[in-house]
## 1
Amino acid sequence: MHADIFKGNFDNLEANFEGLMKNCHRSSNPLYFQVNLLSARSRLFVNMKEKDKLKDNIDTISGKIVIDTSLFGGCLDGWLSFDKCRYYKEEIRRIEESDEKANEKLAYFTNRAEFDLTAAIQSFKDEDSPKARHCTGIAMLEMVSIKSKYFGKTPTQNLHPEKDDLIQCKNLLHDVEFLGVSLRKDVEMNVQYQKSKCIYAIEMEEFVLARDCLDILSKLVKKHKRGGMLTEVETLRDRLQVQICARKGRE
């Protein structure tokens, strides 16, 4: 089922799901098997952008985990928290630019997504198996996408992350690389891609900050008639502007 979802083969997946659920009682741990299936179903609803079905599915999983407390902690509990994060990201994607409460909603849903994703990472770490470490890496990458304020093609796509968040992202990506487990190739490529974006964004912010400081300095130098210093300041500022334009041109 997971393989079909990754490939985008959504046809007949719901029918297959119902068939598998009916046969759960044949497994050695029916409830565990059910929760695993429901977690896979959450990914299906995320890919189909079925927000309401995703929420209902999350509620169903939560109810089953409450029935059997042995399912708390570890990967299953981690994926439940991860699914909640996905739900909040879908809420963010649906925020309308014209909404008067857009900023308020964005802040609320972002905080909720970060909270649940932090819980997911902790649950994966608690299990401490090769599979769980791989899940930790995927969850950390998701945290990077939230902290770097990338939510897809939405009115929020022009948001700019704070430098502190970018540095946290860079550190998270470093941690993913040193989890001590082989990552799937697509995950490994995503790590390198996100890392390059973080470094680029941090350097760009530093360039712009330096240029703005030199703008202020240039005005002060002119005001106090320091001709020799003015030439040096403006030359340095022009060089920075060239670097900024060159970097933007490579985007």
## 2
Amino acid sequence: MDALILSRIQFALNMSFHILFPTISIALCWVLLFFRHRWVKTREQSWLTAYRFWTKVFALTFALGVVSGITMSFQFGTNWPGYMERVGNIAGPLLGYEVLTAFFLEATFLGVMLFGHNRVSERVHLFATFMVAFGTTLSAFWILALNSWMQTPQGYWVDPQGIYHVASWIEVIFNPSFPYRFVHMVTASFLTVAFLLCGLSAWQVIKKTADEATPKVLKTGLILAAILIPIQIFVGDQHGLNTLHHQPEKIAAIEGIWHTEKGAPLLAFAWPNKDTQTNDYAIEIPKGASLILTHELNGELKGLNEFEVHPPVAPLFFGFRIMVAVGMLMLAASWFGVYQLRRTKGDVLKFPRYFLYGLASMTFAGWLATLAGWYVTEIGRQPWIVHGLIKLSEIVTHTPPANIAFTLTMYVVVYLALIISYVGVLKYMAEHPKKTEAEPTAESGEAIAIVANEAIDSTSGEQK
């Protein structure tokens, strides 16, 4: 494989690993704010127990997100040097704004949030939690503004050397796809956290390690998911209509529309055949795609034949359907869970065993849906790095492919070890909540690391 393919694989791997953690940390901190607020208002110990437990999950997640984010920024220089040369005047300040506003905000208040219980007043501690939550969301704001600009660029001008400059920061930041992508991603983060709450809580009930906080956490996750999934479906629909307007070739690939047609069917399943430019084994809803995307039964949708270059069909076609399928499964699980809450009057210990196992198996369902969605977004921009303006082949490194292959292998090994350890730590924490119940202190800040080491040792022992 050449340097372009290897660099794309390496960056995709890095992005896939990194996005897992902000997807949790963005929303989890707002959930922690809710837990903390309930404790301040009610003085029920269960809310404080929930806050302490999930603060440790947040700390671990936040740390891995920061580390993986740093390696991503390095790859702009090592694998894609032409990127900053061409659009550094736009990308550089946006990344800098994230550091100067969001990251510094998080760094300032994170210590108070993690170690300030019983050291500062309740109001100060609650405020610190709010500022960390605001900081994580602000971080997503800047990153998604840049990513959205790469999808729907505007507010720029180009000098004779092909260097891009800012004409209007308002237009750059609030580009056509940004509002939809930002809301879609933040909602996805809340749904990911909702099922993380449900999954770990269900596992605690199964393993008989549930404490007084477990029912409240499980109830919070189920209600959050049940409310947000219908909203996410609406937001996703609006995002799709925006994409149809600005990136019609992406929609054509998602829907498997090879040739422009009126009354295009909605393909529930098919096997896209790029050689014959047809869809084999198609299961379709007549005129469904036209109805959804144009709101007319006989609305016209452009086919891939209309475009000189377009993204590969199969990854987008299947990635989108995986995202939708997981979303529908999450909707069914959350609504059934709300029904169970009403049936048992909130007693999660009376939930059917099969449902608890189902929730536990869906602990990371949000990750799967988010990854599938991001693959659709990023692969759908190919072969462009900035849609319609700069191709990936124009900015790729001249580093020998063997060197990239070596670093790619190292990334795979390290990231695989980290993700296994992360999941192992969460499993251990759910099964041994008493060992992680004590509030970390400034003098014993290694508490999370100790828990992690015990969890990894436990996981290694099970594998042996």
